[in-house]
Structures are given as C-alpha cells and as structure tokens.
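Much of what follows relies on a compact textual record of a protein's fold. With that in mind, consider the following protein and its fold in token form.
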Amino acid sequence: MTILEAKDLHKQYQMGKHLIEALAGVDFKVEQGEFVAIMGPSGSGKSTLLHLLGGLDTPSQGEITLADQQLSRLSEKAATLVRRHNVGFVFQFFNLLPTLTAEENILLPLIIDGNNPRKYNQRLNSILELVGLTDRRQHKPDQLSGGEQQRVAIARALITQPAILLADEPTGNLDSKTGTAIMELLRRSAQDLKQTVIVVTHDPKAAAYASRVVFLRDGVVITILEPPSETPLPQRLRSIMDTLELLEV
C-alpha cells in the first residue's frame, strides 16, 4: 500500500537575481512499512525533498499525496492537520525544550494536540522501552548524552503513532557507535511498528540500514539501489560505496 507519493516535484528559490532550482522533477513513491534512505552531495535537494514530503514546504510544481490526501487541494489548516496526524519528524539538532524532562519532551506533541497525556501512559512506557530510556525519563536534556537526546527526539516523533517518520541527518551530530544504535532503532521502528521511515543522510553506513536507497544529484533522482531483503549489512554498505564511486557523488 502506497503511503506517500510525489509526482514531478519541482522547487525553485529566488536568491538575489538568481533562480535556484533545488528539485527539477522528482517522482517518489513509498510503501507502508518501508525504510528508505535518500543520499546525494550537498545541494542535491535531499533536505528540500524531505521537507516537501512532510508538508513543511510547498512545491513550485508537482503534487504530493500523503495518506490519500493531495496536499495542494487542502487548506493550510487542513494540510497541517494531515501532517500532524501522519508524520513524525527527527532532525539533526534535537530541538528539545531544556526545562522539560525526557518524558515531558516526548509527550509534548500530544499536549499540543489537546490530549490528556495521562491517557497515554502505556504507550509512553512502551516507547521509552523501545528507545532504551526507561531509566532516564526524569532527566532533563543537559543531563543526557547526545545519543540519549536523539533517542528522546525519536520517541517524541513516535508518540503520536505517525504513519511516516522523516529523519534529516539523524546521526549527523553523533559518534559512530551511537549513530549505529540510532539507525538500529529506526530500523526496529519500521519492522516492529510497521512505520514508514525515510532518512536523509550523507553517511553510507546509515543508509545501509534502509531497504532502498535513492540517490539525488542536481535536484533529480539519478539511480535507486534496492538490494534483496536478506542482503547482509556489510554487503549493503559495499554496494552503496560502489554506487557513490560510480556516480561520483
């Protein structure tokens, strides 16, 4: 079942007298429960594509269908509700509120949506266990490591049970060991929770956890790598490295 689809996406930005084309006609389709990585050099349009897919920005041309809703046909308020109820975001910078505990930061989207957080104790406990923060739930961000803060950010994105989780360079500020743990966590959320996960990354090791890798350059998709599901992680990584070298990305 297709959960997210983009057709002929274009995005232009005006920079002084110059028109910058960040995306130049991208077609993109993701199935429910799929784990997709988007790779490409700086300026290739990776983050622009992710923001458009999540409804954080609007395309200059083209159409995005999210949860069977064509975003261009919705009012701004309706599009915001579709995004809020279907998409969770994880960014490179954790964006946690420093005065709140880990538990309070995680529950924040529910509170913003007008829900009573007490009704979600079982869900909260399950997610805290999933991200390995049960014993750190009362700690504030300055009492947590970078990896733990990113886990809080992921838990916050998962608490509303979104159909799609979008992550922009989620391991960018983390050491290799912690980054590996975060990618394992994202893969488990796809497998165990049947969520669709889309990750923008420059790191081949992070991309190797995905079932499909989409390569962008100059605002267009140049190739897609889709190894068989049983392919071991080291072999996936080698295929990504070979593709990057072949494409000179």
